[in-house]
Amino acid sequence: MKKKKTFLSILATALMLIFAICALMPFFFLLISSFKPGSEMIRNGLQFKFDFENYSLVNYGLLTTDRDGMYIDWYKNSVIIMVLQVVVGLFLSSLVGYGLAKYRFKGRNLIFVLVLLVMMVPVEILILPLYKQINTFGMINTYAGVILPFVVPATGVFFFRQFAIGLPTEIMESGRIDGCGEFSIFFKLMMPLMLPAYGAMTILLSMNSWNAMVWPMIVLRTTEMQTLPLGLQSLLTPYGNNYDLLLSGAVMSVLPIMVVFLLNQKTFIAGMSAGSVKG
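Request: output the structure for the sequence above.
Response:
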């Protein structure tokens, strides 16, 4: 029995290693190609070949010089939108999810059903009414126009509700006995217990905001206001592709999400596994 468990453990580790290599292989090719001239990419494509004579940091230098440093503006826009969307989204969705989980009021179940319905509706269906609304508010080509329609993500509300259901209600009652208001109970007593949920949703919301393309493409009009996915997409044209800037820019675009994940890795695992084990 012990040998069987050891064999299964080794087999599982080997399979996970294979899956990890397959998942990282595209990024490895991207990283290697980012040090090569773009002309070689056009001639030979992606190659599993180390040619150190052609490697240089010229492509990364283009990020600050090519197109008058427009890449820096794209990067800045993406970071600003991601930070605002994640911070405000976490705050509001956690409040709503906590309220739906811990307070009994008329219409609570109806609100939760509406949250589930919003999660089921593809964002493409909502683009036209959202665009008319943002255009009416005069928020076209602004950060607010990109952030406002998704400032309270339904996924976040659902996740925080499910997490808050498992929190002990006795803590709230103890806080009321000590004279705490409802907001004090949330911020001082319940929010620290919800840190795993915050860590998990920080990663998920950051990825959604950083990789968003359809809605920012509709709202943002000028090149200076474009986000990083839109800017990199503009480098691919029928008249020629700027692989020198595209490859190095794509590599640099991965760094913020890597930093967010590394900072929230432990809380992400705890948050995603919450409720899977009882006792």
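Strands lie at 236-237, 240-241.
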